[in-house]
């Protein structure tokens, strides 16, 4: 499929698809006229990339971890460098901290709404 259809199907802008390619995260095929040709497996990979980016993982780390997440194998996972694991753990911990803050804020808003509704009656 062409980039416009790949963008529509994946929910990722054409600009982002080009960026993912520039960063070496995806390698779409090419039509004879040079236009990009996205297959379903590339779209699936784009969805994984998007999810990882939304979680706060930087492209540099995604590039390292992506092959083991999308090729269906565990090849190379036992040889992962300790420094890389430390970085990923740090991002995971920061994400957990953000979730905790958001949960606290949600609880405070819930309490406020309960109190406001009780005084309205």
TrEMBL record:
Keywords (alphabetical) are: DNA-binding, Repressor, Transcription, Transcription regulation
Stored CDD domains: HTH_MerR-like_sg3
Q: Name one Pfam family in it.
A: MerR_1
| Statement: the UniProt record of this protein carries the keyword Transcription | yes
The source's domain of life comes to: Bacteria
The cross-references to InterPro entries, in alphabetical order and at most eight, read: DNA-bd_dom_put_sf (IPR009061), MerR-type_HTH_dom (IPR000551), MerR_fam (IPR047057)
Protein's UniProt keywords contain Repressor: yes
Supply one GO molecular-function term.
DNA binding
- Specify the HTH merR-type domain's residue ranges: 1-68
The protein depicted here goes by the name DNA-binding transcriptional MerR regulator
Q: Which organism is it from?
A: Streptomyces africanus
The organism's taxonomic lineage, starting at the top = Bacteria, Bacillati, Actinomycetota, Actinomycetes, Kitasatosporales
């Amino acid at each position: 499929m062409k980039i416009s259809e790949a963008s529509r199907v994946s929910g990722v802008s054409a600009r982002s698809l080009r960026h993912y390619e520039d960063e070496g995260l995806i390698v779409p095929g090419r039509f004879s006229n040079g236009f990009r040709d996205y297959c379903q497996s590339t779209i699936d990979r784009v969805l994984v990339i998007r999810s990882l980016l939304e979680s706060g993982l930087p492209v540099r780390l995604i590039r390292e971890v992506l092959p083991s997440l999308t090729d269906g194998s565990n090849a190379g996972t036992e040889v992962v460098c300790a420094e890389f694991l430390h970085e990923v753990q740090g991002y995971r911990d920061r994400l957990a901290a953000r979730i905790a803050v958001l949960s606290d804020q949600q609880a405070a808003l819930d309490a406020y709404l309960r109190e406001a509704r009780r005084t309205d009656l």
